[in-house]
Amino acid sequence: MNDMTPTSAERAAKLEGMGCKRKRVEDIRFVQGKGNYVDDIKLPGMLYGDLVRSPHGHARVKNIDTAKAAALPGVVAVITAETLKTVNLAWMPTLAGDTQMVLADGKVLFQNQEVAFVVAESREAAADAVELVEVEYEPLPVNVDPLKAMTDGAPMIREDLKDKTDGAHGKRKHYNHVFSWQAGDKAAADAAFAKADVTIKEMIVYPRVHPCPLETCQCVASFDKIKGELTLWGTFQAPHVIRTVGSLISKIPEHKIHVIAPDIGGGFGNKVGAYPGYICSIVASIVTGRPVKWTEDRIENLSTTAFARDFHMDVELAATKDGRVTGLRCYTIADHGAFDACANATKWPAGLFSIISGSYDFPAAHCLVDGVYTNKAPGGVAYRCSFRVTEAAYCIERAMDIMAQKLGMDPAEFRMKNLIRREQFPYTSAFGWQYDSGDYQTALKKAMESVDYKKLREEQKAKREAFKRGETRELMGIGVAFFTEIVGAGPSRACDILGIAMFDSAEIRIHPTGSGICRLGTKSQGQGHETTYAQIIATELGLPADSITVEEGNTDTAPYGLGTYGSRSTPVSGAATAMACRKIKAKAQMIAAYMLEVHDDDLEWDVDRFRVKGNPERFKTMTELAWAAYHEVPPGMEPGLEAINYYDPPNFTYPFGAYICVVDIDVDTGQTKVRRFYALDDCGTRINPMIIEGQIHGGLTEAFGIAMGQEIHYDADGNVTTASFLDYFLPTAAETPHWETDWTTTPSPHHPIGAKGVGESPNVGGVPCFSNAVNDAFAFLGSTHIQMPHDHWRTWTAAEKLGLHA
Question: Among residues 291, 295, 318, which one has the least CA distance to residue 197?
């Protein structure tokens, strides 16, 4: 071989395929301010929409007078529920099988609910007209406490359902009841508790929070009356789902609806569903014959679009006296707000909450979830998690700490004793989930060694003694969390939305010169898809990543897919990409065999080429084969080099991680300083380590915000008291701690490239780790559980209750 011939390793490095820290190609436009967001779209004759919203948490709408607003110069139309009834669009279906008012129909059910839609020549005119719409309300009793929703005499939220005994998920047992859902074996769990040496029981509340993406929800609707076609640009995490739902609601044939999601400034689950603003914009465009843009402001986003969490979990653990867990029970009340608009798979009204057994070998477990209606905004989306997995992880990780405390065991050692062992994989949990792969003990040991866990505990012991002697007013807390996620929704036998199986797709076309384009059914909101999908193709096909264009978000060109949320992009669409590549590679191999005059089986793959076995000097590169595919294919073969794959995964994937956090708390001010945070993640095959690290940094920052300050809070009258960033904590660089990241690699055995997904993991593991650290600081003083969020006031209050301010 010529000494100048590049080696296989050198050729692989030039491709910038999987494992390479390739720079994000998206950032070239973003850092120059050249992104193309919905609010950048300007169309000829475009109108602007704005919403009249209710000041009440619960009230009857007696009258709506739009005359003054309609008379304002620049106002084109004012739409109410009565307008929408003329086109049968006053109510719309939700992804969870419920129905939701588009505009208030008879009464309002939560503060800032949509009442009327003003359309005007300018944003300013629309905003002015909103103030002129006069609405007469009759206030009604309010309930914002889910624990009181099913009590006798509780205010009836949904009068439209008062006579319905059946809901979307079975029998309803109260007029404010949404569903009951259970998993596991109740008899086996009860038996485990009956003979347990030690038990604990705790009410653990994961408060209502909000994804609060930097870009709010917005759209531009443009209806062409001549063609009868609707084009809808919007902040959509799942464009094809929006197209299907839009067709079902509007009765416009789906082939005449064009949905385009341009660049999106963050999603985190907030942009999965359909909102009244979208429907109103569509109707307004149909009525006026002109494009209509709707852009919500921050208060609207925080107070009305899809919330997350609001799970009230009464959890119990059973164990032997030497620290082996034997049983788990959990009863949860889930607050769904005024409408059930959760973005869960149809069969899972409480999402994948039955992952609550976590990373531990529980022989018996059972959970029951009751969903209820309250006078709060609807939603229940997966805020940087996979369908209620974060709630489950927070619950089990807090419960494990509480049990360790009762047993007098170190939290890390208690976890180590109960982690599922490597030889048990594939492991079937007490809830029936089949965990694909894992090496949990290795991960936790590496985490403990990396932070010198033993030394930290010794330091904490010394500081506690100093605190007792009055030498310091600071408490040191060490939080440990070990989590397992269930992501990659999903297998069609388990997951669908509105009857559509949750597969995903990839279409790859290789051009004659060896470059190519990949179109997908997912939609990036900052995850770096244009970079990472190209890296998968680079490794699979031996073409440089820089020569691959990745497109998403246009339903006219992308193959049908279910979108991006719940860490499903790489586990599902990434798999589709790899499988489409393999179809292309198989055809390329036949072309290479024809050109080299050998049998297909006489060829072997070498990074970017097929070579003859035993004679590596005879080969054809993928670039050469791309050219040949358009003019030199074997007789009877179709020209071209392209493929499409719809991937229906055989199972979910199960990424996991071990996190350790160290905090110092001033008991006199309640201020918590995060001294150190170490995060070890195992996401299977690592496609781009730099993007993984960025995803983990972002997820941990959101976890920090949730654990240390975030809550969508309502007062007793249904007023949202945290509806702006003045009151809702969004961490900035000033507050955000330094993150230490690490990894182990345990590929998924059923995924084509062994990847598991990582985008949600740091939020899932980070929240309980922070909370465990704060709770650990107070544990030696007899405290069992302090509810989130751990802001200064609540932490000071916890110290006050323990008598530390006397």
Answer: 318
CB atoms within 10 A of CB 454: 12
The two structure tokens encoding residue 524: 């990036």
**Tens digit of each residue's pLDDT (9 = 90 or more) over 332-353:** 999 999 999 998 888 899 999 9
Q: Is there a contact between 633 and 644 (Cβ–Cβ < 8 Å)?
A: no
Bond preceding residue 426 cis, omega within 30 of 0 = yes
- Continuous segment of H or E residues that includes residue 516: strand 516-520
End-to-end alpha carbon distance in the chain: 83
Among 648, 646, 649, 647, residue whose Cα is nearest residue 559: 646
pLDDT tens by residue, 486-497: 999 889 988 988
Query: Per-residue pLDDT averaged across 450-454, rounded?
Result: 98
Q: Are 339 and 99 a contacting pair, CB within 8 Å?
A: yes
Query: What is the distance between the alpha carbons of residues 283 and 221, in angstroms, rounded to a whole number?
Result: 9
The predicted-structure confidence for 591-611, as pLDDT tens digits, reads as follows: 999 999 999 999 999 999 999
H or E element in which residue 83 lies: helix 81-85
Nearest CA to 74 out of 9, 144, 130 is that of 130
According to DSSP, the residues that pair with 551 across neighbouring strands are 519
Place of tokens 């060896």: 514
| Cα separations in angstroms, 363 against 86, 186, 190, 403, 655 | 57, 12, 12, 17, 22
225 pLDDT above the threshold of 60: yes
Q: Where residue 1 falls among pLDDT bands split at 50, 70, 90? A: very low
Which residues carry out catalysis? Answer: 237, 384-385, 760
DSSP code at position 710: -
Which residues make Cβ contacts (< 8 Å) with residue 82, sequence separation at least 6? Answer: none
- Contact criterion met (CB below 8 Å) for 254 and 555: no
**What torsion do the CA atoms of 202, 156, 178, 707 make, to the nearest 10 degrees?**
-40
Contact 624, 542 (CB under 8 A): no
SS3 487: strand
Exposure on the CB side of residue 352, measured as CA atoms within 13 A: 27
User: How far are the Cα atoms of 98, 483, 487, 761 from residue 24, in angstroms, in the given order?
Assistant: 40, 29, 24, 21
Given a contact cutoff of 8 angstroms between Cβ atoms, the answer to whether 647 and 579 are in contact is: yes
The three-state secondary structure class of 313 is strand
Assign residue 670 a region: left if phi > 0, alpha if psi is -120 to 50, beta otherwise?
left
Closest listed residue to residue 457, CA positions, set 679, 802, 736, 779:
779
Residues 6+ apart with CB under 8 A from 316: 193, 199, 200, 201, 327, 328, 329, 330
Could you tell me the two tokens for 81? 């529920």
Determine the Cα–Cα distance for residues 334 and 721; give it in Å rounded to an integer. Answer: 21
Backbone φ and ψ of 515, nearest 5°: -90, 175
